[in-house]
Design a protein that fits this description.
- This protein is an alpha+beta fold.
- The protein has one domain.
- The chain has a three-stranded antiparallel sheet with strand order 1-2-3, with no helix packed on it.
- It is globular and about 35 Å long.
- The relative contact order is 0.25.
- The mean pLDDT is about 75.
Length: about 70
């Protein structure tokens, strides 16, 4: 998760609140709602894209809400 925060330069709340449906793994982005309330997209690098599926394969099911 640290890598995702670093790559996106987003606030922790923005990264932890999206639902799984808000993730676009193909284009390495997620739909977030920052403080202003407008919908924006955060993008991450290839290294983070490789780590996200590993997190879910490690015995943890993909989250229902947020990336926690």
């Amino acid at each position: 998760m640290w890598r995702l925060l670093y790559d996106t330069a987003a606030r922790a709340e923005e990264i932890l609140t999206p639902n799984v449906e808000d993730l676009d793994l193909e284009f390495r982005r997620a739909r977030v709602v920052p403080k202003g309330g407008a919908i924006e997209y955060v993008h991450w690098a290839t290294s983070t894209a490789r780590l996200l599926p590993r997190r879910w394969r490690s015995g943890k099911r993909p989250p229902r809400a947020g990336l926690r």
